[in-house]
Specification:
The chain is of the alpha+beta class. The chain has one domain (3-46, 59-75). It is built from two helices and five strands, in the order βββββαα. It has helices at residues 49-61, 63-75; strands at 3-7, 10-13, 23-28, 31-36, 42-45. A five-stranded antiparallel β-sheet has the order 1-2-3-4-5, covered by helices on one side. The longest helix is centred in the C-terminal third of the chain and has 13 residues, at 49-61. It is globular and about 35 Å long. The two termini are 14 Å apart.
Length: 77
């Protein structure tokens, strides 16, 4: 399970056997969300709205890096 970033208590990651479309999982404490990288669509969320907005802002800021890490990981499989 590659961890992409730890920031402001959030952990951004994807699973080793992920599927398209490219997305990240975000965890903070007991809260969780799944966000697509190309559209920023929230596919699942168990986060408070304020925390989800923060998570989305961080995904937008690091989107290119997250996509590059996704591509790199999956090209080696």
């Amino acid at each position: 399970m590659p961890t992409l970033l730890l920031q402001e208590g959030f952990k951004f990651f994807f699973y080793a056997n992920e599927h398209e479309p490219k997305h990240v999982h975000v965890a903070k404490g007991d809260e969780y969300a799944k966000i697509e990288l190309n559209t920023f669509a929230v596919r699942a969320s168990y986060m408070k709205p304020k925390e989800l907005r923060k998570a989305l802002a961080i995904v937008r800021l690091h989107n290119r890096e997250f996509e590059e890490r996704w591509d790199d990981w999956h090209s080696k499989r």
